[in-house]
Amino acid sequence: MKTILIGRWWGASIVLLLLLTAHAPLHAEIYRFVDKNGVWHFTNIKTDSRYRLFIPGRKSASDYLNEYQGIIQQASTRFGIEPQFIQAIIKAESGFDPQAVSSKGAQGLMQLMPGTADDMAVVDPLDPEENIFGGVRYMSLLLKRFKNDKVLALAAYNAGPDTVESFNGVPPFPETRTFVKRVMWFYESYRLATE
Predict the structure, then answer these.
(1) pLDDT higher at 87 or 22
(2) Where are the domains of the chain?
(3) Is the entire prediction scored with pTM above 0.85?
């Protein structure tokens, strides 16, 4: 991206809006400054000491996947769950964003609710290692409870195990059904990629 010069404040607003709504993920940091004539300057290459960080760079899901691969493998070995299944849950839950917090209060990579985090002895749900180990431990308990049925365990992970048992299967909630489908799709994709 080359340096962008914008002459009015509304122009800066348009650039910001475009940057925030772009469909492609941003991976570069964006810097800005206003010169003495009131002209906004934006760039992804800090070529002048007046530039200040405006939008921090973001990592892609594959960057995070590589970063957490060791933790995922350790949790996989410890709890006997395929690493591809763990990756799929993380991808569906948080898109590999360790700081993700849902509107319902679920936190971290595996989107642990506070009560679940407490039950799994997770002190800091935003710590990737604690979150992954807590989430995988919880999933291992759900898989045992539902006789290794991944679909039912996923439904229970999303809607709660008692709800799955009360419906005697996947509850008819659009959010839960979508979650199960997404995780299973990601799981199959990750499995195919490692074959």
Answers:
(1) 87
(2) 4-55, 61-194
(3) no
